[in-house]
Amino acid sequence: MVSWLSRFFHYLDCHFIARKSLPPLKEVGLTCFRELVYQEFKVKVRDAVISLIDKEREGEQIDRALLKNILNILVENCKGEMDYYENDFEATLLEDTAAYYSRKASGWISEDSCPDYMLKAEECLKREKVMVARYLRSSSEPKLLEKVRHELLSKYASQLLEKEHSGCRALLRGDKVEDLSRIFRLFSKIPKGLDPVANIFKQHVTAERTALVKQAEDAAGGEKVFVRKVIDLHDQLEAFVNDCFQNHARFDKAFEADFEALCNKRVGRSSFAELLANFCDDILENRSEELNDEAIEEMLEKAVKLVAYISDKDLFEGFYRKKLARRLLFDKSANDVHVRSMLTKLKQQCGGQFTSKMEVMVTDLMLAKEYQTSFEEYLSNNPNADPGIPLKVTVLTGDCWPIKKFSNLNLPAEMVKCVKVSRGFCQKERNGVHLNWIYSLGTCKVIGYFEQEPKKLKVTAYQASALLLFNSSDRLSYSEIKTQLNLTDDSSSSCG
C-alpha cells in the first residue's frame, strides 16, 4: 500500500515535499507501518511463519507465496537492508531448526542403520536448500545448512561411523561404494569431519594388508596367489579413493603408505619383488591359458602399478630380468607383443635406465633370428664348412644378460667342429667380436641307438657331452667323465 500511495502522490513527493524539506511519503508510510503494525504483530507473525516452515518439513502443503511476501516485507521495512530479517526472524528460525533436527536425530540414531541415517540426512539438507530457494533469502542457506549438519552429523559422528554392523568399517568390507560416497560428501562439509572417516579407512587398509600377508604365510603355496590378491586389493582400495573419496589427500596418503609397506614385506622366504616378478613371468607365459590378449595387458598394467611401491626397484629388475632371459632363450613367452608391451609399461613407470638392459636383450633375440638365417645361407653356399649337425647359435650382448657362469667344457669332437664353424662365421659377420660360450644354456637333440629301438633324447649340452663319451667307451667312472670333460664338482651336476 505504501508503494502504491508513493506512486499515486508522486508529483507532491517530487515538488511540494522537497520544497518543504519534509521526509518522503514512502519513508513516512513505512515508519507508520513499523510503529503501528510491525512492532505489534512481529512475534506472532514470526512464530506463524516458522510453524508453517516446520509443517512443510513434515511434508504438509503450505502457502509458499504468502511466506515469500511476508519475508519480503521484513526487507522492505528496513529500506532493503537485512537487519529486520536477520534479527527478528532468521535468528529464531535457526534456533527452531536446531531444535527440530535435534529431535529428529535423537530418534533416527537409535532406529536406523548408518546408510539409512545418512540418506535421511542428505535428504534433509537438500530440502533446506530448496526451501531457501523458494521463499527465504539466499544469505540464510549456509547458516541453515550449518545448523542441520551440526545436529544430524557433528553430534553423532562417532556413533554413526562406528555402528557395529552398518558403520564405515562394515561399508568398506562390503564394498558399499554409494554409501561411502555419501559419507564423504556429507562429512567433508563439516570442520574436521573427514578426520574420523580417514582414520577408519587407514585402519581398514592396515587390517586388510595384515590379513592378506597372514593368509599367504599360513596357507600352503599361498605365495603363488598372493600377488593376485594384492592386485585385487589395490583395485578395490584405489576405487575407494578415486570414486568414493574424490582422491582426497588424506585418504590417498593412507592408501599409499600402507601399500608401500605391503609391497616391501617378505612373504615366507620370498620378497614381494621376487613374487611380483614370478607373477609377471606366469602371465607372460600364460600358463593358465585362460587369459586373452586384452586380459593379459590389463593384468600387466596392474602389476606394473605395484612396482611403484617397491623401495628397491633394482631388486625387482634383477628378478624380472632373469625371468625374461629364460623366456627369451627358451622361447617360453606366449606372445612377443606382450613382452615388448611390458617393457614399455616398465619404462613409463621407472624410466629408460631401468629397462635399458632388458631392451637390449629383446633386440639380441630379434638379431639372433637374422643371424641364424644368414648362418644357414652361409652353410648352404659353403658345403665344406657344414659340420653335419644342425646348429643354432644365439649371440648375446654379455653385459646385459644376467648370465655370469662361463665354463671350459671339453666338448666332444662332434661338437668342436660346430663351435669352430660358428665362431668363424660370427667373427666374419661382426669384426672384432669376442665370444664366450655358455654351454649351460645349450640344449641338444641326441639319438641313442639301443637294442630294441632308437630313442630321441632332448638334453643339455653338458648331458650330451657326457653321453657322447660312451661312443668310444662302454664304461666310465664319475671321475673319468669329470676329467675328460674338464668339469668341477659343481658343474658336473649339470650332467645329471
Automatic annotation (TrEMBL):
Family the entry assigns:
Belongs to the cullin family.
Q: Could you read off the lineage of the organism from its UniProt record?
A: Eukaryota, Viridiplantae, Streptophyta, Embryophyta, Tracheophyta
What stretches pass through the bilayer?
none
Q: Sorted alphabetically, which PANTHER family does this protein's record hold?
A: CULLIN
**Example GO molecular function:** ubiquitin protein ligase binding
Q: What is this protein called?
A: Cullin family profile domain-containing protein
Domain Cullin family profile residues, every copy:
271-490
Source organism (scientific name): Eucalyptus grandis (Flooded gum)
User: What GO biological process term is on the record, naming one?
Assistant: ubiquitin-dependent protein catabolic process
Using the record for this protein, list the coiled-coil segments as residue ranges, or answer none. Answer: none
